[in-house]
Specification:
The protein is an alpha/beta fold. It is about 30% helix and about 30% strand. The chain is built from ten helices and 21 strands. The protein is globular, with a radius of gyration of 20 Å. The model has no long low-confidence stretch (mean pLDDT about 95).
Length: about 425
């Protein structure tokens, strides 16, 4: 197998953008740069590119546009191009969610168009660079369990729910499911265990700084990349897992917390290279991009969600996200297999509960989920979540009945890929 790593800055040129994660405000500068991290893969006649972007997310039309940019930089089939977004909240609005009104709306649209044009050029260049530095490699893999995330949903016996970031006194007693696996994949020169690039995967919303700042920042993924580069002299492609319901334990804690959490993850990534396991070759490279026809939610379905949720009063605003209530929607997902490893790209903010189901149901020995990879259809949560309500069930586009068919389609496709 051959692999090549490259990264490029995708920070808005003038340091100005409408900060997407919390609906504003406009940025006042740059704390640290945003990056596109590209991994070029080649095995026999199969070529692929995996790219992680320090963005909150991308809609399907922007994903398609960026795939065209990749193809201008590297000879890779469309279905073999994989994107994922780290989901930093301290970056530009690339999904058109932050509209206000009038002149402000127009200003945001103009900014988004200019930024997407810039992004396309950077994606093309970093793809070209990653392909140009590809070299024969050997792979090592490891895992660690890092207790830096929590499930942000809290429920009382009387059916009331609370969103823990808005009730931080609940943090010490958060009890919901959290996926604490830190996945690490090291790409090493043949005969040398010092990697020239690595991929890390951790399930946590990267908003340790969050809306405490008006500065652009990659948040935790940026710290991890910087420290791994310092410690092992190699670039890191940071992939956020199924973090729809998983948060840092001190959200909106400021940049000191960003450095602390990033330091914990980077330290694990560096030290666990030593006892990482080699993946014996040959390692087959398999790619699959597919869609399944599902249903958008209806207002009647949303009205049936528990009204005890603190977010129930905002359901009119949330329904505005749904293009065609009750209509059909083609929902894309992607699969990238490297030997016994599988990366699953999902079309939105998949809950940690569903991410773990994919890991547990996977026919591959090791499975990682790639957050906001093929589209942004809002939050995609486990069926029981709709019985309790909360932020995540309200902020979605798919009908509750679409969850199981989506999960089944992904698992069936993974089994098909494993058998091919």
């Amino acid at each position: 197998m051959k692999a090549g790593f490259a990264e490029i800055v995708i920070t808005p040129k003038d340091g100005k953008c409408f900060l997407a994660g919390y609906g504003g405000p406009w940025s006042t500068g740059v704390h640290d740069d945003l990056y596109a991290s590209a991994v070029y893969l080649e095995e026999g006649d199969t070529k692929a590119i995996l790219m992680s972007l320090d963005l909150i997310g991308m809609r399907a039309d922007l994903v398609a546009r960026m795939k065209g940019c990749v193809q201008r930089g590297a000879d890779v089939d469309t279905d073999n191009i994989f994107f994922t977004c780290t989901h930093t909240h301290e970056g530009p609005d690339t999904m058109g969610l932050a509209g206000v009104s009038g002149e402000e709306d127009a200003k945001q649209r103009d900014t988004q168009k200019a930024y997407s044009d810039f992004l396309g050029k950077q994606v093309e260049q970093v793809s070209r660079e990653a392909a140009s530095v590809a070299q024969d490699c050997e792979l090592m893999v490891n895992r660690a369990f890092v207790d830096e995330n929590m499930n942000r949903r809290f429920f009382f016996p009387n059916g009331q729910s609370r969103y823990i970031p808005s009730y931080k006194d609940l943090v010490p007693i958060a009890y919901g499911h959290a996926d604490k696996e830190l996945g690490m994949l090291y790409f090493c020169p043949v005969g040398d265990k010092h990697p020239f690039g690595m991929i890390v995967n951790y399930t946590m919303h990267p908003l340790t700084a969050g809306n405490t700042t008006t500065l652009i920042s990659a948040d935790v993924p940026g710290v991890v990349r910087d420290l791994v580069k310092e410690g092992m002299q190699c670039p890191t492609c940071y992939i956020t897992g199924a973090a729809g319901t998983n948060h840092p334990k001190a959200p909106e804690g400021g940049f000191a917390e960003t450095r602390r959490v990033g330091g914990v993850l980077a330290t694990e990534a560096i030290k666990r290279r030593w006892d990482a396991a080699s993946l014996e070759g040959p390692l087959a490279l398999k790619c699959l991009t597919r869609s399944v026809t599902l249903k958008y939610r209806t207002r009647e379905q949303v009205d049936a969600f528990p009204t005890t949720s603190q977010f129930a009063k905002r359901k009119d605003r949330f329904m505005e996200l749904v293009p065609e209530p009750g209509g059909d929607v083609e929902v894309p997902f992607s699969l990238l297999a490297i030997g016994p490893l599988l990366f699953i790209g999902v079309p939105g903010e998949l809950s940690a509960e569903l991410g773990s189901v994919l890991k547990w149901s996977s026919p591959f020995r090791i499975t990682y989920v790639m957050f906001v990879a093929t589209d942004w259809l809002g939050y995609i949560v486990h069926p029981n979540a709709y019985k309790w309500g909360g932020y995540e069930p309200f902020v979605g586009m798919l009908s509750p009945a679409s969850v199981r068919p989506l999960m089944n389609a992904i698992i069936d496709a993974a089994e098909e890929l494993a058998a091919s």
